[in-house]
Amino acid sequence: MRVAMIGSGYVGLVSGACFADFGHTVICVDKDASKIDALMQGQIPIYEPGLDVLVNGNRFAGRLTFTTDLTSAVADADAVFIAVGTPTRRGDGHADLSYVYAAAEEIAAAITGYTVVVTKSTVPVGTADEVEAIIRRVAPDADFSVASNPEFLREGAAIDDFKRPDRVVVGAEDERAREVMRQLYRPLNLNETPILFTNRRTAELTKYAANAFLAMKITFINEMADICEKTGANVQDVARGIGLDRRIGSKFLHAGPGYGGSCFPKDTLALVRTAQQYQSPTRIIEAVVEVNSERKRHMVDKIERACNGSVKGKTVSVLGLTFKPETDDMRDAPSLDIVPALIERGATVRAHDPQGMKEAKHLLPDSVVYCDTPYEAALNSDAVVIITEWNEYRALDLARLAKSLRGAIMVDLRNIYDMAEVERAGFSYTGIGR
Question: Strands of 383-386's sheet, edge to edge?
Fold first, then answer.
């Protein structure tokens, strides 16, 4: 099939490359000419494991191309995916749909023949209806359907999530649209992937409900961790004890400094605003948003307590800046709250991250010293703080680390180390919930 992917950011590029790998002919469109030029030369603008090989393999095979010309890309397409950004709108917390609606207007002017226009971006309930209304207004005679096909990609594992998903959710109002979507995802039949067909509004809400539920699990175990610290319990054992219950499950029960990234913060807030708009408030998710915001600030207090009550005049080594491992994404990363707060309280910060330092330099205070290795970051520091659980931090040479440090304090905000092991190496160790 012929696919046009409007938006060549994270979702658009991964989805376009995977559809091309299924054998479809895909054109990725973006208004950013420099990004398109880079992609045409095989340069990938984001870090995602395996994406460079996938993109360039399909580019060389002729199944994946890139352009700034939306009209030519849409003209012959069987399906046009809208995969543009929907950031939080300033001032009110709603999702900013201006990019989605602008794309819909341009698509309307370019459609030739029957086309399914698919919202891939995360959008509030009713957005597909508005996209349909826009296209009808701009092109009254166009032959098209509008569908919703939310993405469920985890950064760092996006390709596997697309090719071996738990499920595919498609919201469509007519059989022609459903048949096009079946053909697009037909390669997944080999894995017997469930494809759930719903109406469009159900599909849109399913995406928000999924992310809100996962954010709630993270926030729940973080609050349990706080109780564990006050009672002498161990949150890792608590998580295992409840996670073995198949009704609950073990995923997303890892205590830490709070969730971040491109999805959970904006999607939970957008769901809260949508619920308020429809006068059906989501009290649980409102609490999740508030607790998660406060948690990042509480982590700074934890670091100060570990440093004998103050970080003023001390050097703190921060390991991990991105919101999770295997990505260079800094959006709403806990480090964006923790690092500036440490500096405000008088600390000097030396930092290392395997992929995030380039982006971090635009987002963190200029005084942060960036280092090539974790051991360089620890040099003459009073404490080392692990914020992101990159694999290369899981087996650090503790003896070498201790020699680099001026003080022997480790604050492990991801619980990747065994307390006894770290203390045997001469450190004072502080974890989460134990």
Answer: 369-370, 348-352, 315-319, 383-386, 409-412, 428-430
Burial (Cβ within 10 Å: 0-12, 13-18, ≥19) of residue 223? middle
Q: Is the pTM of this model over 0.90?
A: yes
Question: Tens digits of per-residue pLDDT, 20-73?
Answer: 999 999 999 999 999 999 999 999 999 999 999 999 999 999 999 999 999 999
Cα–chain center distance at 16: 18
Polymer length in residues for the chain: 434
Tokens of 232: 């002498």
Active site residue 263: yes
Measure the CA angle with vertex 237, ends 231 and 239; round to 5°.
100
CA distance 434 to 431: 6
**Token pair 């175990």 in the structure block, residue:** 221
What separation in angstroms does the CA of 282 have from each of 30, 349, 396? 36, 39, 43
Given 18, 28, 228, 263, the catalytic residue: 263
| Whether the Cβ atoms of residue 224 and residue 255 lie closer than 8 Å to each other | yes
**How many CB atoms neighbour CB 240 within 10 A?**
12
Give the orientation angle of helix 127-138 with respect to helix 98-110, to 10 degrees.
Answer: 40
Residue entry with tokens 């635009």: 362
- What whole-number distance in Å separates Cα of residue 170 and Cα of residue 120? 10
pLDDT tens digit sequence for 171-182 = 999 999 999 999
Angle at 116 between CA 110 and CA 118, to 5 degrees: 100
CB contact burial 266-284 (16+ within 10 A = b; e otherwise) = bbbbbbbbbbeeeeeebee
Which secondary structure element, helix H or strand E, spans residue 27, and what is its range?
strand 25-29
Tell me, letter by letter, the H, E, C secondary structure of 282-313. Answer: CHHHHHHHHHHHHHHHHHHHHHHHHCCCCCCC
Q: What are phi and psi of 371, to 5 degrees?
A: -125, 155
R_g of the chain computed on alpha carbons: 23
* Contact present, 80 and 117 (Cβ < 8 Å): yes
Give CA separation, 193 vs 105, 178, 184, 299, in Å: 33, 16, 13, 40
141/139 Cα distance (integer angstroms): 6
Rounded CA gap, 232 and 246, in Å?
Answer: 26
Structure token digits, residue 149: 């096909």
Query: What is the phi/psi pair of residue 278, to 5°?
Result: -90, 10
Q: From residue 387, give the alpha-carbon distance in Å to each of 47, 278, 373.
A: 19, 38, 15
Nearest to 131 by CA among 142, 147, 143: 147
Q: How far is CA 113 from the centre of its chain?
A: 35
